[in-house]
Amino acid sequence: MTEKILQVKKLEVKYHTREGILTAIHDASFDVDEGEIVGVVGESGCGKSTVASAVMRLLPPNGQISGGQMLFRGKDLCQLDEGGMRLLRGKDMAMIFQDAMTSLNPVFSIEQQMIDAQKARMPATGQKGQKALRERAVMMLERVGISDAARQIKEYPHQFSGGMRQRIMIAMALLSNPALLVADEPTSALDVTLEAQILELIVGLRKELGTAILYITHDLGVIARLCDKLIVMYAGNIVEYGDVFGIFDRPKHPYTQALLRSHPSHSVRADRLRTIRGRVPSLRELPLGCKFAPRCDLAGEVCHGTEPDFLLVDRRYVLCHAYGRAWGEAGPTVTLPSETRRPAAVRTLERTGSGDGVIVKTVQVRTHFRDHVAFLGQVMGQTGGTVRAVDGVDIEIRRGETLGLVGESGSGKTTLGRTILRLLDPTDGTVIIDGQDITRMPQSKLRPMRARMQMIFQDPFSSLSPRMKMASILLEPFRIHGLPVDDPKEKVDELLATVGLSSEQADKYAHQLSGGQARRVGIARALALNPDILVADEPTAGLDVSVAAGVLNLLKDLREEFNLAYVIITHNLNVISFIADRVAVMYLGKIVELAEAEYLFTQPRHPYTEALMSAIPIPDPRLRDKIQHIILEGEIPSARNPPPGCPFHPRCRYAEERCIAEVPRLREENGSQRLTACHFPERVQFRLSWD
Fold it and tell me: Whole-model pTM?
């Protein structure tokens, strides 16, 4: 019999605030079995992280477990004092936090932190010498894939990349082979290749150690690839709970259905993504009855007045009136993306206005930076160096076309986007906007052109002034360019309406907006002067799946309405497959493959693209064993000292001596309009299959 590691029964968590006592988790019940991975999903504010903190008894000072039980191997965690919990944490239970950089102490070496973590559990682990503790730490770093661990353990957190820091966090959590591992968004900030490495590592550790995992994420693709069971949370309630295959194949709760319909996937043909109106309610303003009723398309009178019961439906627990006496046993029906699935290769590419001519052209553009460390070395008489962020890029973008720029962090995507807009001056090469060479254009002539080329920045809050109301922010472009506005209020309302916001937002400051609203205001500001070119840097980063779906639909609508040319920069390949016409894959400042999106996603020709495609988390658990996951070893090399020959050869499974000695040229393949920089593109055999 499989042992139940964790049993949560009718858990209730409350926060004591100035406004009163707020219920964050209500009547939550679920189990985690030995060696099982249980996923927890939901929008921000649904209570996912609160559940994780409650299980670990790490709630903030104003948080309180006010009811229920949490049985860890039969022992009620709610009844343990802090001393009893300290004996369990780290030994039998461990947690991987979302942001490794803020979880690791920057002033202590990794060695010191891992040794201190073991010493904190000495009463449980027994007294061990410093040497034994260090050997154990090195062994765990090696287990999670840290190369040369005996040397690197002496380094500090800032000397590691994001992916390596996350591996270190996992190694620290596994120091004592815990029976339960709580992972709170451990891959949310990582590139798709690093995410694939971490997910593969987690699966391997589960098989090797039998560790049970409570995995919290907003990415349904990760859930489909990783988990055995799924918990769907909304406004502090578990609204659906059961086998992951059953939930993805036939979700019962309207909220689960809405989440799945909102998620972009390159395996699904969709012209628009479905969105969920409204937002998750505040704990201070929870509605009566079903908490999802104000946003539910199926809600009836009973939903708004009476709380639903948790019912067992087809071996799955569902919190919905639809399956009770009110509506009968059949429940709601919905057409899911999986029912309209077909190979992306048969998609008909639709491009609006793509024949209107080239509006953006770069010719061998290079953007290099002086390495600050190397500069100090030169001052001291040592050899300096250069960071080759963009190193010889040729692209063309037509009116009404969307070009996706993809690649790992450090590949040069954002630098290229900023160089196109002359927010960064190129070191060499040519940038042509609508026939005009702006490469060396003086600022006096470039300034009027900036109205035609705008950027949507990655972090909307840092790009919106905290001291200005939205109305002033939206009118600022007109003031900067000296353009008169006949009716400022009417213009502000018009811009807000364009991005789907009400006129009420005009009188708000940035901190009063949600993430989706702030991003929409950033888009409205970029559209104020009717530009021809928009560069969007990670336009959906950090957004809930439904809010991201709304932003993507908006960008697509605006492109068709205004015939805009887009450069979409992102590491989310599902986003690119939904919105891009062509995709440029960047690696160490160079484009290694450029092709129509439909062909790139089904038949990549560069080994790096192949690895990216195989790493995409697809929101369908039935495909988890049908996709060959190609895990890239190591991380992208430094642009200060790129490898000789093909820059990808140190990580390429097809590399030969020619790859080490000769740089491949980006060339067209047999009139296919696909460009590939690879000596052996015919060796790439990756194909997507939905059989």
Answer: 0.83
